[in-house]
Amino acid sequence: YEGLTPGCHLHPFNVTIRSDRRGTCKGTHLVYACVGYCESSAFPSRYSVLVASNFTHNITSASRCCTISKDAKVRWRRCSSNSLECLLVSARCSCPLTRPPSGQSASGLPSRSTPRRNRDPDGEGVSLRHVPQVPLLTRQDPPRTNEHRDKNQTTV
Amino acid sequence: VNLRRFIGCAVREFTFLARKPGCGGLHITTDACWGRCETWEKPVLDPPFIESYQRVCTYNETRLVSVKLPNCQPNVDPTYTYPVALRCDCGVCLTSTTECITSV
């Protein structure tokens, strides 16, 4: 997989279909998966979530996943019985972007920290405290620890 | 950093309203996690006919911070504790510690 771009895209791959138990009669079909990088975020849970989880869920994760939004059927003929078989394959992919609403909403998502940032749905101009050098799933070294100091807050 | 093209998971500032019954609210700006992690779905021959891989940008290392909420009633503890992200990573959403909200 080479497409390191945001979004959710069709990605071809081969599937091998064996039509008898010994696998002597088999064929390869090109089908599609949905592969991509979708927005996700995690933030402190609302108090109602804390209470409902007996104070075990102090983090809320809101995410979108790259999914098959529409499928199609691929047909092939069994060589042993000459019957038609079907395989559902991806025809369209979906990865709608996460859009945290402004303020504390019913969904529990927090707002970004300034009004300007709230008008900036793609986050341009928002600072990232730690940005990895390479995509995280292929990164081996741990990220740098972020310094966070706030004199009004105390560490428990 | 061009966030429109950003791939990965990073610490990012978020502001939320800390509140609980019997106290006033307090806007808190803290470090949380944001990014884009790899997810996929592919068709397979056997039930349930879909195989999926889902990783989300979430806390990898945290510290807890406590603040005191304003205008609390006498019988209400004003302390409000929340996690601050020290490191974020793409990973499985752990339902043991995390409220996982995934929508398609």
* Parts with pLDDT < 50 across at least 5 consecutive residues of chain A: 97-126, 132-156
**What is the typical, i.e. mean, pLDDT of chain B?**
92
**What would the CATH topology of chain B be?**
Cystine Knot Cytokines, subunit B
What's the CATH C level of chain B?
Mainly Beta
Major pleated sheet of chain B: 3 strands, antiparallel
Please state the CA-atom Rg of chain A, rounded to the nearest Å: 23 Å
Taking the alpha carbons of the first and last residues of chain A, their distance comes to 43 Å
The strand line-up of the biggest sheet of chain A is 1-2-3
- Share of residues in helices of chain B: under 10%
Q: How many angstroms does the end-to-end distance of chain B come to? A: 27 Å
- What is the averaged pLDDT score of chain A? 62
CATH architecture term of chain B:
Ribbon
The percentage of residues in β strands of chain A lies in 35-45%
CATH-assigned homologous superfamily of the domain at 1-98 in chain A: Cystine-knot cytokines
Helix content bin of chain A:
under 10%
Shape of chain A: elongated
Radius of gyration of chain B: 18 Å
Secondary structure topology:
The complex is a heterodimer of chains A (156) and B (104).
Chain A (H helix, E strand, L loop, with lengths): L6 E12 L7 E19 L2 H6 L6 E6 L2 E11 L6 E11 L20 H4 L9 E3 L23 E2 L1
Antiparallel strand pairs in A: 1-2, 2-3, 4-5
Chain B lengths: L7 E11 L7 E18 L6 E5 L1 E13 L10 E13 L6 E6 L1
Antiparallel strand pairs in B: 1-2, 2-3, 4-5
What would you say about this model in short?
Chain A has 156 residues and is mostly beta strands. Helices cover 6% and strands 41% of the residues of chain A. In chain A, the strands form 2 sheets. In chain A, strands 1-2-3 form a 3-stranded antiparallel sheet, with no helix packed on it. In chain A, strands 4-5 form a two-stranded antiparallel sheet.
Summary tags:
heterodimer; A: mainly beta; Cystine Knot Cytokines, subunit B; three-stranded antiparallel beta sheet; two-stranded antiparallel ribbon; B: 104 residues; mainly beta; two-stranded antiparallel sheet
